[in-house]
Amino acid sequence: MSLEDHAEELASSLGVDKTEVKQKLENLDQYGVPIDEAKQTVRRNYDESDSGSPEEVSTKSIAEITTGDSRVGVDVRILSVGKRSIQYNGEQHVIFEGEMADESGKISYTSWEDFDLETGETVHLGNIDIREWEGNPELNLGDSTSVERLSETLDVEYDVGGDATLASLEPGDRGVNLDVQVLETEQKTINGRDGETEILSGVVGDETGRLPFTDWGPREALSVGNSVRLEDVFIREFRGVPSVNVSEFTTVAVLDSTVEVADSGTRYPIGDAVDTGGMFDLELTGNVVAVRDGSGLIERCPECGRVIQSGQCRTHGEVEGEDDLRVKAILDDGTGTVTVVLDEVLTAEVYDGDLDDARDHARDAMDREVVAKEIRENIVGQEFRVRGTLTVDDYGANLEASEFTRRVEDPQDRAKRLLTEVKP
Ligand SMILES: [Zn+2]
Q1: Neighbouring-strand partners of residue 238
Q2: 386/366 Cα distance (integer angstroms)
Q3: Cα 364 to ligand 1 centroid, rounded to whole Å
Q4: Neighbours of 314 (CB within 10 A)
Q5: pTM to 2 decimals?
Q6: Which residues neighbour ligand 1 (ion) by CB within 5 Å?
Q7: CB-based contacts of 25-32 (< 8 A; 24+ apart in sequence)
Q8: Ligand 1 centre from 307 Cα, in Å?
Q9: What is the pLDDT of residues 327-383, one digit of tens each?
Q10: SS3 62
């Protein structure tokens, strides 16, 4: 775009005379001010001198912003700045994302322009679009947005800088910094937009938990045993749990000290675990309060593996079902419930018999349900320690178990508990 075009666009968006705007832009251009910055300066100029005009948007506090707003201004502190390359309308764009806050709350933002926003600084942003993202308002900064650095620092109750722990992450988080230890890695070749690409995937851990990660440009620093600081990662959902994405803009630094990782899945109250929206490799303890239908000796579609009823797959119609063992047990610890899913091996343990035993059992009784019934008798009302990966979605909270062990109470603890229970 020529300076003339820029002047035209800006003048029409401001509703003012083009000649004057062009003159101001030319002036700034002579001083070597980049065109985008020059446009912002001129815009601010008009905004300030013309505060009564209908073009002016009102400054709101973050708590006041709703998805019904179209444009607002805010005074905010920048909590985090993440940089990411995305495909938009067939073109590659570099965007900036993160969170900002004021005294009333915090909000996510996406910036389509590079305003040089820095973590920790306090700014006035004028003329921001409001977008809705998963039901919440989000700030959308574009070329009509003005940025003004403020000298006072806003006091906010949030951590500035984007440092986080693995347990606190949710899909959609951006501009995040993590200190983690690399626990597992696997080199993969995928067929992406630009042909075959090498990526690195694996698992990272810290004191609060473990999560899968993907490095889109494999880095040597991410090798097993290394403790690293990752700056500017973004979080996506991968098979129901948050996944750490290391992008081309992420900086990776190997740390001298070791980031401690709990050696087994981190233990959580069920309610807290469900609130995180999904977690990788965690540990829960609770009582099995019920064994759900669809447990015991079940049949799966040979094509898609889904559980079928009466030889009918919802996708593949009538099929020759394949027998399998599964348990869907409801685990409760008083803070919440999850459905624990046991595979064939773990089911065989709680059933105390394998697939052949289950088939014989069902044939003798002429009822497949006897298997589930026996499992129910074996585990309902008892306390278990479960390790696995938790997903939370429209189907509820499900934990794919990798370990399922009966908790044997220490006799002394048991005596103490019984004593307190009988006290009036
Ligand atoms: Zn099927």
Answers
A1: 241
A2: 33
A3: 29
A4: 10
A5: 0.62
A6: 301, 303-304, 313, 315-316
A7: 29/3
A8: 8
A9: 999 999 999 999 999 999 999 999 999 999 999 999 999 999 999 999 999 999 999
A10: helix
